[in-house]
Structures are given as C-alpha cells and as structure tokens.
Amino acid sequence: MFSNVIYSNEYLELIEEEEQYYVRVFEKGYNLNDFNNIMLQYPRINLTCFSALTSAIALASGKIIKIGIKKPLVELSVSKDRLKGYVTLNMTTEEFDSRDKSELVEIVMQAIQHSNIVYGIDVHDIVNIIQPLKKIQIAEGVLPTRGNDAEIKLYKIEEVRPQMVENEAVNHYELNLINKVEKGTWLGERIEPKEGVPGKTVWGEIIPAQPGRQVNLEYDKKTVTERYDAKQDKTILYAKRTGAVIYQNNIIGVCNCLEIDGNVSFKTGNIDFDGFVDIKNSIEDNFIVKADHDIQVMGDMGVGSVDTIESRDGSIYIRGGIAGKNKAKIICNGDLYTKFASECTIVCDGTVNIGSYAINCNIKAKEVKLESYKSRIIGGNIEASIKVQAGEIGNRTESYTKITVTGFERNKIKEEYDTIILTIKKVKEKISLLKQKLSIYSAANLSDSQKADFDKLNDEFEYYRDSLKKLYNKQKKYVSYLHAKGEGEVKVTNCLYPNVSISIKSCNTHCSKFLNTPTTFYVLNKELIKA
C-alpha cells in the first residue's frame, strides 16, 4: 500500500502517499534534529504530527506512522489583521532554478484567482522578486480613515498693543480696547465633523470607519445664536444684539456696550454701567463714568478735570490723554492706556502705559511704562511695585519728581513663575489625555450613558483649556516682572535731571546732577545699584 518511499537511510524511511507523509523507523539512535535536513530537501512537508514523529523515532517499532500532509506548491496566506496577502513557493532552490519563471508566475496567478484574496492585488513585480520558500506580499488592504474632527473658529480678540503715532499731521495714541459688533455679526463657526472613509481587507471585507469627533460650540445663548448652513456644512454663530465681544470662562458672548456718540455731559448725566462704555468724543469736567468692563474715550482732545473714570473689572483707554487739573481720578482693575497724563491721580492694578508724558501726576500701579525714547515724567509722585520706565525723568527747571518702587521678592516671584510653568505642563498633559478619551467616542450612536460621559469629558476639556489660557496670561505678566532687574527697577532710556528722588525697597538716592546717558537703578541684596 505504501510503496512511494521518497527518502531512506539506515534508520528510517520517508513515504509520500496521496498528499500525505508517513515515516517508518526501524532502527534506534536516530537524532531528531537531523530530520530538519530531510525537511529542507522536501519543503512541501507540513509536519502536523510532531509528537507522532518523536514517538516513532524513540520506539523504532517499524510501524508506518502518519506525520504530516503535503503543502500546495503555491501557498497563500493572510496576515492576522487581513490587511496583507502573501504567496510562498514551496520548492527547493534546485527545483526553482529548473522551472521556467513565466510558468511559475502563471501558476501563482491561477492560485490567486482561485483564492479568497480579491482586493489590493499587485503582482506586477512578482517575476522579479519571487524566490523559493520566501513569503512575498502580493496584496494589501486599506485601513479605514477616521473622519475629520469638527473645527471651530471664533472671533479673535487681538492682544492690546498701543502704538504712538507721531508726525506733522497726527499725534495719536492708537489702539482698540473694545471689540464692538453689530447685531447679526459673525462671531464664529464650526465646520461639522466628516464621515470617515471605510477600509477593506484583502478578502474584500469592508472595515467601518469612525466619524470625526464633534466639538461643542460654547456660547452665551442669551446674546449669541447659531444657524446651520447645509451648503457649507457649518454651524455659524451670530450676535443677537449690538454690543462688545467678551469671553468669560471660554464662552463667547456679547456684553452690554453703552455707546455715547458725543460727550458725557448734562445731556447724558453721570454713567454707571454693567458692561463696556465706548465714548466717541470726551467726558466733560466734573462728570463720572464707571463701568464693570473696559472704558474707552476716543476723542482727540482726551479728558480734562473729570471727577472719576473707573473700570471695576477691566481696562481704560483714553486716546487723547488726561489733563486732570489736580481733580481727575482714573481707577481700573486692569491696565491703563493713554497718550499723556497731567495733574491727575491714577490707581491701577495692572500696568499704566503712557505714550508721551506724565506731568505732576500721582500714579500707583504694578508697572508704569513710558516706552518712547522721547517720553517724560516730570514732577508728581510715581509709585510702582515692579518697575518704572521713561525716556526722561525730571526737567530743566528741576521740578521735584519722586519715583518709588516698592519692590518684590525675586525668589518668590521665580518660585511662583516656576509653579505656573509646571502647572501649564500638567494642564497640557491633562488636555492631551482628555483629547484621547474624547476620541474614543463616535459622534453618532451614543447611548444615554455614553452621551453623559462624553458631555462630562467635554466640559472638563473646556475647563482645562480655559485654565490654560489664563495661565498663559499670568505667565506673560510674570515674565515682565522677572525682566525687571534686581528686586525693583527704575529705567531711564534718555536722560535724568537733578532733583529727582528715587526709592527702591527702602534704598534711596537723590539725583543732584544731570545724567545724559541711559541709566538704570535697581536693588540687589539690599543694595541700590546704578548701571
């Protein structure tokens, strides 16, 4: 029955019969490892009964034992993910070299045609790369492509950067503090998430694709409305009313904005407003303007002996300057921007930015900056926590000018700054983690519990994103503080006149002579240094 002996030696015979392989071991002492050499001579043996082989060699009973089946000449296989198809020629090198290559390629093509591999087949180079017993890729499927996530663009509030414009015709201190919009103005949009592109296995199976992740549009429902534009596949935000754009807790809204076309006067009365105030001209003497948010006075002439201008939680911009006549009081929780200031009182929790000069003013702030080379501080009492900077301090008539910098603890500020940096890193890591968690959810087909989890994660994501924005703003201020020299600085970029008193952290100096060079005073280790 078993007459087709394809190999024999003094220990055993290898028999092939009807696509199956058998062994008869008649002498003990055969080394199992040597059987590998026989396998190399007969690459079409698929050893399916290894335990039977080891037992036959050990017992040498002379019985015919089945050990395997015959591999096909052209063996096709597919990767576990079903995305790659391979072909292997089960023949020895000698057999391969003796066969016509075009005939082998034809055999391979016929095997592929009769297999389950139907997609992504590419055999144009197979004639050049085919080798015996080498797995060669002949097909590749396509991974699904996730749809694009929703993209959000929102109205951008530009960073406030004052600019002093000076030439023969114009002398203005230009910036825009209030971002005013009309009803119906575009405030933002969300390009909706896209469906993904399905993939396909080499067997032709469709691999579903995940749609892009939806992102919530955060806006104040009372002042902003949304409309879906099917043609553009966008959800667009519009202002419900005229007002000033504001972000609170990363939510865009339109705050009340009181616009005065002319002056604040007897016609309007004093103003105390719960939003922004935009005054197109000026504020007449003795009048009061107070607001919760930013105030801007846009007239070329600025203001005179007003009573009070106060922003409880914002900044103030007075385009034309302040001629206070020893009466005007300017108070703000944010920053102050003005072209000039004279004979007024300024109390500011942020930075006082003055374009041209400050004459006989009482100013108290974190920093007082007159950055122009031609800027001047003359007379008055200037007090800052961190730094005072001007082109010139004092004047030729030697008006008494007092500059006080209460100073700061650099190590403490540095520790706080390092804490901010560390917190920023942790918040960014948290945001990255939340993004990964959110990406798991498909925009469609969410159960109620999954939607609740998704909404909770999204709220947390928005919270940390808003926190990051606040941290960056805080970091920027601390960078400014740390740029100050020592533990408090007075910087003169042009010249310093006599009769100027400078006090930094209880270290005092009185300038008794004219200094016509850039000079910086700062305190380091309780010592006043002049550089």
From TrEMBL:
Report the Pfam families cross-referenced here.
Answer: FapA, FapA_N
Domain Flagellar Assembly Protein A N-terminal region stretches: 74-250
Q: What is this protein called?
A: DUF342 domain-containing protein
